[in-house]
Amino acid sequence: MKILLVEDNEAIIMGLHYLLEQEGYTCLVARRRREAERMVAGELPDLMLLDIGLPDGDGYQLCQILRQQYTFPVIFLTAREEEEDVVRAFDLGADDYIIKPFRNRELISRIKNVMRRGSKEREVLQCGNIALEVESGRVRVAGEEVTLTKLEYRILSSMMAYPGKLFTRDEILSDIWDISGNFVNDNTLSVTIKRLREKLGDTEGRVIRTVRGMGYRMESHSV
Ligand code: CA
């Protein structure tokens, strides 16, 4: 886990660098706003600790610029404790706001918390070249986004969560009963699977396998 510390105070840099490395993180340091932008463009950090007062700009500007392009978590770390400062940071997409002087163990605990939250949001199920982003509901096949209906998405996400598991037709039907709002019969299921396969480029059923007389199984190889 790489943490990019954007900070211009050498004493804080020294202390935090030591603390983070002790905790098993790799700590990279940027002392200027521009330097931070360059470093992020070169290699994405897993999290950024961001000071507000920087020699060539402020943390707000940096956060705003980064948020247009990146989703990694940002924790503001600053002496500014006015409510409006805190609110502004959150409005710009900050994941947390910690006021200096901070307590070491609390800081580490809040970093871990933000990372846990972040990893859940970015969770991606992968089967061959099919990627499904759990939080956003995006599905990509070989990097290309495909649009699925609610029903197709529900079936795919259930199956991708358990690749290799047999899903009987009855199981799938009872699972999609709730979201479809009306009765889904066996034939509708067959048609939905057929459309889903087409969208996934799996017309031969090599990824969503038919298990004859039983149901379907997700294979993990590429389409
Ligand atoms: Ca500063």
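^ calcium ion complex. The radius of gyration is 23 Å. The chain has two domains: 2-120, 125-218.
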